[in-house]
Structures are given as structure tokens and as C-alpha cells.
Amino acid sequence: MKVRYLRGLALLAVVAVVFSGASALAASPKSAAVDVKFKSGPDSPFGLAGATRFDGYYDSSSQRVYFLGTRQADDSTSGEVWYYDVAKKKYKDTGTAMPTPVSNYSIAGLTDKTGFGLYIFGGRDASAGIVTDVQVYYPGTNTAAKLGNKDAWPGTTSPSDCVSLPAMGVATVGNTAYVVGGVAFAANGCADENSDQTWAFNPKGKSGKKWTQGPKLTLARGYITTAVLGGKIYAIGGDINDAAVLTAQTVVETWDTKAAKWKKATDLPEACDETQAFGFDKGPLANTITVTGCGQWPNDLPDVLQYDSKAKSWSTVGTLLESRRNEAGANIGTDKKPQLFVVGGYGADGATVLETSEIGTVSKAGLQWTRVAPHGATRGATTS
Which residues on neighbouring strands pair with residue 87, listed in sequence order? Predict the structure, then answer.
């Protein structure tokens, strides 16, 4: 098995990211080779006939990953709230549904005046419309609510001021959610456009004053993958929508939320959209961001990319067991023992909706990926 070496990490402190029998890390005289291995795990059907264009949030207190609805294999939209019980390795429908079923969302865990809630902003509804609803699910009481129109999602595209679809472009710093970029589609009743806007959401703000506009991105685009590292938000890749054709980007930007503007960072080694990213300030993956898979609408690659914030460089560090995009993701472990859980999404052909999931774990042999649920379903491609 070939193994490449990760740049910028100290000898014996290297953590390799894994993934298939293919090899992975770029050579550096300062790092040591780490064996790359993977193994199959237990079957675990998701129960939603395939799921895509959704997100997961890990609640460590209950050891559950919550999903606030999904696009399903038949292109319908479900608002049912599910969770994956990490300890029992089982999925369960909570019996609660979001007020407006949507797909194309990312979850922010925030504390408001009611308590701890899982927030989603805008999205695509069951009629393929782009909505402005801000919704919240409270795990402690198993209830869901929609905020009033005064606190609706305010993001728009340019120049037509269409309601933007932020999709996975959400990051949380402290108790504030930051929503970056977005797209709109003529097929959804507006125009094929992009957004360069940044918006901050304060869950404890007064009614009608929860949103504050931030600085513009250096490049307007949607389907941005976000990560937080060192207190900074990274806006990774994404798509430019030109006449309903989404073109994946290599651009990466970073923003300290106290700063006046976004700054360009090191570009991705390949254009990516619609994926998941995990940032770590400490532990075996300290000072890195791991991007699990690389969407390139309408298809995707299984490539796993890693950013070293010290060296300011990206490496292609392996592959997932299955190529996927629009998947949900959450770290179901800790900083010390990460477990990078990804589930569902579209397969490599851009049409097959996956029920499978994978878990990446760190060991002396590196970051290993374990298959959790090898099942699948098929559907037609969509525009958003």
C-alpha cells in the first residue's frame, strides 16, 4: 500500500486521514509514514428511503445526532426529526416534524430564551421554493417552532435581490450563527444568481433585531462548506451559478468575526462544493480542517482534503469508502478522540441517494473510516 506524507506536522505527531485502499499523504521530511487501513462496521439502515441535502448535529449530552428533515430518494421533502443513537447504533423518528419541511440546510446549535435549540435558516421546501423561514428544534422538549416574519432569513442574491439558498453555508462561533453566501435559481421562480452576503444571527436578540449584516465575501457563490478553526470562519469552495449550471470553486476565504472583511486563504487543490468540513483546535487533528469528500455538481469525488493552518497548505489525504456530496456530518467523538460521522448524500453518479454512513476514527494507524450502513436508493438529479 502506498502512503504519502503530510506536510507541516511534527515527527510522530502526524495523524493521517484514511479511507480506502488508495493512498494518501504528500511527502515531507518532517513527518513519519502512518499506515492507512479501514474496516467494515455493522449495517444500520437510515429508514428514510435514502437521504440527501441535509445536516446532522451531535448532542453530546444525549449521544444523539439529530437530523431536521431531508430530501428523500423520490425527491419529496420530509420534515420529520430523526436522531441516530451513537451508543445503541440505531436511528429513531422522534415523532416531531419541523413546521416547514425543507432540505438544503445546515444546523447551528444555539441557546435562546427558551433553552438550547437546533436552528436552520431558509432552505428549499417541498414545492421546490426557496423559503425565508427560520426554524428551531428543542431536543430537551422534543418540540419545534418557526420564528416570526420579523426574524426571517434576510439573505439575497445580486442583482435581483432574490431570496438566497444558503444550504450548508452556516458556521457557529460562540452563541452566534453566521450564514455565508447563497444561490438562487430561475427554476425556483427568481434568477440564476449568487450571493456575497454574510449574516450573523443572535438567538437572544430582540424580535426583529436578531440579524446583523457582516462583510461581503471576496467571491459571491453558494453551497459553501464552512469550518471554524482558531476562532475564524473558513468559507471553503462552493459553486457559482451561471444559467443554472453550478461550477465548483477552489477559493477559500477566512474571517475573524471581529474583523472588517474576509481575507483570501490558500485555495483548495481541487474545486469542491456541497460537502462537510471539521475543524480542530486541539487533539490529534489540532490546527487542521478535514474536508470529507469533494462535490463537483452534479457529480462528486471521494477525495478527502486536509488544511494545515500552520503551514497554510492543503493536502489530498485519501478517499472515503463511498463518494458522496450533500451528506450530513457531525463529530460524534471528542477533540481527543474524533469520530467523523458522515451519512447519506448523492453518490458518485449524482443520482443515487445513499443510506450508507461512515465513521472516521483516529488511532495509531491514522484516521480510519468504518462503513456503518451499506444501503442505497436511486432518484433523478435536481437543480437545487
Answer: none
User: Between the CA of residue 347 and those of 47, 108, 278, 299, what are the distances in Å?
Assistant: 17, 26, 21, 8
Q: How far apart are CA 79 and CA 67, in angstroms?
A: 9
CA 280, CA 272: separation in Å to the nearest integer? 20
Radius of gyration for the alpha carbons in the chain, expressed in angstroms and rounded: 19
What type of residue sits at position 129? G
3-state helix, strand, coil in the chain (%, to 5): 0, 45, 50
Other CB atoms within 10 A of residue 206 CB: 9
Domain boundaries, the chain: 39-378
Dist. CA 85–CA 380, nearest whole Å: 30
CB 368 within 8 Å of CB 37: yes
| Beta-strand relationship, 225-229 and 232-236 | antiparallel
| CB neighbour class for 68 (10 Å; exposed up to 12, middle 13-18, buried from 19) | buried
pLDDT tens string 43-59: 344 445 578 999 999 99
pTM of the model: 0.87
- The model's pLDDT over 130-167, given as tens digits with 9 standing for 90+, comes to 999 999 999 999 999 999 999 999 999 999 999 999 99
CA distance 189 to 92: 36
Topology given in CATH for the domain delimited by 39-378: Neuraminidase (2.120.10)
Give the cell for residue 214.
Answer: 457582516
Tell which residue, 34, 25, 17, has the closest CA to residue 277. Answer: 17
Contact between 270 and 294 (Cβ < 8 Å): yes
Cα–chain-centroid distance for residue 34? 27
CA angle 40, 380, 168 (to 5 degrees): 65
